[in-house]
Amino acid sequence: MTNNVKNELPENYEELKKAANRTSSWRARFDAVEELGKHKHSKVIDVLTTRMTKDPVFKIQEAAYRQLKGFGEDVNQPKQTKFDIIKGTSKILLRIKKSLPADHTFEEFKEKFKKMRLDVYDAYEGEKGAEFDKWLENEWASLLKK
User: Fold this and answer.
1) Are residues 56 and 103 in the same domain?
2) pLDDT above 70: residue 82
3) What's the chain look like in SS3?
4) Do the domain assignments include residue 8?
5) How far is CA 52 from the centre of its chain?
6) pLDDT at residue 3 above 60?
């Protein structure tokens, strides 16, 4: 991979900034961080710093960190959280469970979660990767006992 960093704002900066902050798509944020990393500019550094410190998805924090490090910025590597990546997730899931009929299926729960709170759904999907369904099913199963 060659390092083609430009010391100017990308032409589509506003669009990339919007994508970097899109709460409903960790993939859009990740792609925007990767693209912004090709342009060393103070505004880009601000966006990347925000993603590195505030994004709920660890792989986006890491990508932003990698880009900032590549610019020569003095940044500390983000630490992965072991708890809810979004505060109040269990309350959100419980509310969704209670909004469904008592005999609902996991698939119905998953679909309603996605519809009601795409931002939270998407963040966990990005964070958990291939383990997402297993994690969500475990959360759902533990809610059924309450």
Assistant:
1) no
2) no
3) CCCCCECCCCCCHHHHHHHHCCCCCHHHHHHHHHHHCCECCHHHHHHHHHHHHHCCCHHHHHHHHHHHHHCCCCCCCCCCCCCCCCCCHHHHHHHHHHCCCCCCCHHHHHHHHHHHCHHHHHHHHHHHHHHHHHHHHHHHHHHHCC
4) no
5) 11
6) no
The per-residue pLDDT for 2 is 43
Q: Write out the residue range of the structural domain in which residue 131 sits.
A: 89-144
Across residues 89-101, what is the average pLDDT? 93
pLDDT at 140 over 50: yes
Q: For the CA atoms of 131, 89, 100, 132, what is the dihedral angle to 10 degrees?
A: -10
138 part of a folded domain: yes
pLDDT in tens, 28-44: 999 999 999 999 999 99
Overall domain count for the chain: 2
Are 38 and 69 in contact by the 8 Å Cβ rule? The answer is no
- The pLDDT confidence band at residue 86, using thresholds 50, 70 and 90, is confident
